[in-house]
Amino acid sequence: MNNDMLSQEEIDFILKGSDGEKNEDNLELIGDVEKDTLGEIGNISMGTAATTLSTLLNQKVTITTPKVMITTIDRLAGAYQIPFVAIDVTYKEGLEGANILILKVDDVKAITDVLMGKEEIHLERELTDLDLSAVSEVMNQMMGSSATSLSEIFSKKIDIEPPKSYEITFSEGKEKIDILKGDQPIVKISFRMIVGNIIDSEIMQLIPLDFAKEMADILLGKEEENLSLEKDNEVSAAVEEIEEDYEVSEEIPIKPTNLAEDENNITKKKIDNNEETVVVKKPVFETFNGKSDESYNESIDLVGEIPVEITAELGRTKKKIGEILEYGPGTIIELDKLVGEPLNIYANGKFIARGEVVVIDDNFGIRITEIVNSYKHS
């Protein structure tokens, strides 16, 4: 194994943690519930990403249950001096933050060779710009599908910027990548990734502590509680400020007015000891009688090329967060659909039809058995 390759001992050391990292992890910067939540977020998102990687490489991909711990960049830099490939992934919608994925150089070479259709994997060669470009595109699709899973978890649209790849060490990364700058605590989520008989390695995800806590709080419902508390505090502060600036009398005579009677009257106000005349009257709106006879006979071909997303729903269910946190490989989730019951079909989220599942060659399909009446007459 040459100098730019990571040994198994070294990757185990950095991903499983030294004694110093374990001691730091005991500082309880985040609680066990938050750690479990982050682990489950990583498990779901990386599980989806693994499915995408399997499709791209045409290989079976397995990612194990994640391990979550707290560390710092300085500790990682001191223990991990061999170059690796860092993929910088920034969220541009739904979440405000970024994270870094760390891969071994040899794993990136193997992924590139498989994508290029090479029969043999050459790990002795130097890492090239083609490798970095290839892994960036792979991560773009993997993390894109991961963002889709996160959208379902957080119940809002989440999207990412195109990932950027670097061949660096942690020491070099502190100068180039914002997340790696400074020595603030950082959350490390490590996975074991197996790709066919090509890759059996460890990858890790680095997330700034504040961003990690924000994601955990959103999923656990703490963000709404904090926003509500902040809003109550702001209202209380505003009331106190008003009470300090004005003396409120309990006996203020109020003369009832009739706007209908006084609509043509002129109201005089005194502003800064100067009289200003203000005219008050009802607004006048244009009236429309009858329906317009104007019609349009344009061909429907004008909109015929607009894409519409068709979705077939197998079923639904509701679970508590506590139950979801207990999920793992092999967990069976019971849906609300019975065997043989028609499936719902949606066009851009609108319910339009029902159908039954069929198999076309190696793919699933759905045969429409009923069109919804409201859709036909709309």
From TrEMBL:
It is found in: Cell membrane. Residues 34-70, 132-165 form the CheC-like protein domain. It holds the Pfam family CheC. One of its GO terms (molecular function) is cytoskeletal motor activity. It comes from the Bacteria. GO terms for cellular component: bacterial-type flagellum basal body; plasma membrane. One of its GO terms (biological process) is bacterial-type flagellum-dependent cell motility. Keywords: Cell membrane, Cell projection, Chemotaxis, Cilium, Flagellar rotation, Flagellum, Membrane. InterPro entries: CheC, CheC-like_sf, FliN, FliN-like_C, FliN/MopA/SpaO, FliN_T3SS_HrcQb, SpoA-like_sf. Residues 303-372 form the Flagellar motor switch protein FliN-like C-terminal domain. Its main location: membrane. It is a peripheral membrane protein. Belongs to the FliN/MopA/SpaO family. PANTHER family: FLAGELLAR MOTOR SWITCH PROTEIN FLIN (PTHR43484:SF1), PTHR43484. This is Flagellar motor switch phosphatase FliY. It comes from Anaerosalibacter massiliensis. The gene is fliY.
